[in-house]
Amino acid sequence: MTNSVSTAMPETPRPHGPFASLRRKLPAGEVIRFLMVGGFNTLFSLLLYSGFVILYSHLLPHRGKPLIADLSSICAKPIAITVAFLCYKHFVFRTKGNYLKELLRCFAVYGVSTPAELVILPVATHLFLAPALTHPYAPFLAGIVNAGIIATYSYFAHKKFSFKR
């Protein structure tokens, strides 16, 4: 009998526990980059949306705040999506080429979320109009609530559809 020494590399331990499957699907570096870029995109889109809220509040002072929230979102969205697309493409998912295809997919991802936003924004605005403390800031606070919901959805939609490798 001969002694043979195994030269096989030990297996990399797979994550285990209640969130193991989630950790396997979320590469750490990509998630960190997404959170950083997503933070920038969220701040940029909220500032853009807020600028439109201020503009439409002055242009349409007799219209309700829920309508102003929806109009502001509709106007800010194409600009914010284009900036988000460029950031996700170059800094998060790091794909090459396919600009038009990925841009159209990115717009499709956000297009799917638009009907939800058109419900979330006025409902959240109405909710924030009730307390006196949040009344003046209702459309802005509704925008923050909306941004959080859409950011969660968009990571998975972009990863699995817009920038699918």
Tell me what the structure shows.
The protein has 165 residues and is mainly alpha-helical. It has one domain (28-162). Helices cover 74% and strands 0% of the residues. It is built from 5 helices and no strands. The protein has helices at residues 20-25, 28-59, 65-92, 99-129, 138-162. It starts with 19 loop residues before the first helix and ends with a helix. The model has no long low-confidence stretch (mean pLDDT 84).
Instruction: Name the helix and strand elements from N-terminus to C-terminus, one letter apiece.
Output: HHHHH
How much β-strand is present in the residues? under 5%
Can you tell me the overall shape?
globular
Percent of residues in helices: over 70%
H/I helix tally: 5
Q: What structural category arises from helix and sheet content?
A: mainly alpha
The termini sit apart by 50 Å
The main sheet comes to: none
Total beta strands: 0
| Low-confidence residue ranges | none
Q: What is the total domain count?
A: 1
Q: Compute the average pLDDT.
A: 84
* Alpha-carbon Rg, integer: 22 Å
